[in-house]
Amino acid sequence: LEILHNQTWMSVCDAAFDQQDAEVVCRELDCGAPVQVLGTAAFGKGDTQMWTQEIQCRGNESQIHLCLTSPSHEKNCSHDNSVKLVCS
């Protein structure tokens, strides 16, 4: 999962990425409900910068950028633990 932030695509770390976050992403993409969050091997590693914020959606937002964010407590956020999401 990558997001556009200040004209730069960034990979989202899976630290604190939960079901509510997945629901918002799948809804925004109009891709149905979230089915599964997968490990890095599923789609390969990305090569973008890592997003250093934790996304904190309530689950009812229409777009991911409407969710609150906070600084990540994850010290080892790398492409080995970026979010890989499958929507229905």
Automatic annotation (TrEMBL):
Against InterPro entries, the record matches this protein to: SRCR, SRCR-like_dom_sf
Give the domain of life: Eukaryota
The reply to whether Repeat figures as a keyword in the UniProt entry is yes
Domain SRCR residue range list: 1-88
Q: Which UniProt keywords apply?
A: Disulfide bond, Repeat, Signal
- Which residues form each disulfide bond in the chain? C13-C77, C26-C87, C57-C67
Q: Which residues form a coiled coil?
A: none
Name recorded for this polypeptide = SRCR domain-containing protein
Q: Which organism is it from?
A: Cirrhinus mrigala
Write the lineage as a comma-separated list: Eukaryota, Metazoa, Chordata, Craniata, Vertebrata
